Amino acid sequence: MLSVSRTLLLMMAVRPSSGLTYQAVNPTSCPTDGSASLWTAGSALPRGCHVEVATGNVFYNGHATGGADITGARAPVCKGPYKVGDLATDSTNCATSIGVGNLPADVYECCVTAVAALNSGGASGASGDPHFTGGDGDTFDFKGENGAIYNLLSATWVTLNALFQHKTYHDAGPKHREVHGSYITAGFAVIKTNADRLLHIGYDATRAVFVNVAVNGTEPIAYKAPFSMTIDDVSVSLEKRLATITTPEWSLSLSSKFKAGIVAAGNTCADGKCFLEVKVSPRVDVAKLKVVAHGLIGQTYDGDGVGVIGKTDDYKTRDNVVTTSAMGEGAIEGEASDYEVPSKFATDFKFSRFGLTEAKPRDTSKLTGKKVGGAAKADSAGAA
């Protein structure tokens, strides 16, 4: 059962308005009777927890299957909305109000899990000539040293590292601006399962149809797409150049992207024309865990609701040539070199959380970047 400490404020019966779109949250954990993950007014809404895409409100549909006519007898019977941040401290509170024959604990856990995932912030990651986004809306650019490997996410039993390579590329615009930048070209995950098996998972943009998996130090096996595997409580899949790793607490996505403008000897991924986009999504309220994550991306899930805007590169130019240089200044704890690891599957660096039993979040007040959202937003609202 997920432990929570906030108060459920709204427990009134509501019916969804026409035209709203809902998306099931964590359907494998929720007691749903239907298989559909999306619902629009006029179609069936399966029983279970749903989040309203437009507002972020969480609902629970208590009807056996829901119905096509939202105004008729088979209309979805929804309880809520449970706003982001509104959680029950007593499991009987949510369950008694919703009770539809499911075990109260199951119903409660479903609702709490759904809201907790939203409380953790949305997906974060790195894209393009690495532009980073964080869990609270943090943004910064990070060029990295050529050929260096940096930690992106470090949690209790999850590590995600990335290889950075300097690349020269030309934009697709009419002037074909020349940029001397960098890209993430490979990702390396180390995960310990609930059965104490140690997984090494690697995905390289230059070999986009293969994902490498090794268990307990064995030789890695290259699996070709389409591929999926479940090892204890961890799943690995590769579909259409997208590698996905899912643990109980995190979802990690590595996607190989082709960029024609990258200067290379040939015109394929194997020639160096491809790079990785990385997405990191929490599956629980990770800021409430005893070990709060770190790494270039992981540290942004600090639970304070404040985004930090760090240094970004200026692509404006008069001579049509740009050289990037930003290294996360202002938005990351410490310095860029603090996140560098010596090898692909190394778990140790200055802010490592791997294997720890307790670790506090970073202190954003010590970061020099501009603060947005949360208390920072309230402070700035009254400024002249």
Helix/strand order: EEEEEEHHEEEEEEEEEEEEEEEEEEH
Q: Helix proportion of residues, in percent? A: under 10%
Oligomer: single chain
Give the neighbour order of strands across the main sheet: 9-8-7-20-19-18-17-16
How many E strands? 24
Shape: globular
Question: Which residue ranges are poorly predicted, with pLDDT under 50 across at least 5 consecutive positions?
Answer: 1-42, 64-110, 112-120, 375-384
Q: How much strand content do the residues show?
A: 25-35%
Structural class, by secondary structure, is mainly beta
Separate helix tally:
3
Cα-atom radius of gyration? 22 Å
Give a structural overview.
The chain has 384 residues and is mainly β. It has two domains: 13-119, no CATH class; 124-379, no CATH class. It has three helices and 24 strands. It has helices at 91-98, 104-119, 374-381, and strands at 13-14, 21-24, 38-40, 48-52, 58-61, 78-82, 124-127, 131-133, 139-141, 149-154, 158-170, 178-192, 198-204, 210-215, 221-224, 227-231, 234-239, 242-246, 250-258, 274-282, 307-309, 321-323, 340-341, 370-372. The strands form four sheets. It has an eight-stranded antiparallel beta sheet, with no helix packed on it. Strands 10, 11, 12, 13, 14, 15, 22 and 23 form an eight-stranded mixed beta sheet that branches. A hairpin with a 5-residue loop joins strand 4 and strand 5. Helix 1 (91-98) packs across helix 2. It is globular. The termini are far apart.
